[in-house]
Design brief:
The chain is mainly beta. The protein is 0% helix and 29% strand.
Length: 105
């Protein structure tokens, strides 16, 4: 089994993304909206998650967007506590350039 590598890069117009890969499969997470898992799949193969092309790279705004992927949230889901987080920047503890904890509402 290959070692897991983590790299920060730009993906789909979002500047703050992390790729975790062992060379066989990869997962990509962005903290620009969410945090949100925006890709999962075998390396160099199609994304297993939905991709919403019109919302790729977009951040902020007052309208709800689908974005694609999978939004990370904590339960119980409660509007407005858990919903606005998908539109705003979030963070992941330990990510360089980000604070520890969650910035959402």
């Amino acid at each position: 089994m290959s070692a897991v590598r983590i790299e920060k890069f730009t993906c789909g117009g979002w500047k703050n993304c992390l790729r975790l890969t062992n060379g066989l499969v990869e997962v990509v997470v962005t903290t620009d909206v969410g945090p949100r898992v925006i890709r999962y799949g075998f390396s160099d193969a199609p994304n297993m998650f939905c991709e919403v092309e019109k919302d790729r790279g977009r951040i902020g705004g007052d309208e709800w967007r689908m974005y694609g992927g999978h939004r990370l949230w904590h339960s119980p889901e409660d509007n407005p506590r858990t919903y606005p987080a998908g539109q705003r920047e979030g963070c992941l503890a330990g990510v360089p350039g980000r604070h520890s904890g969650y910035a959402g509402g």
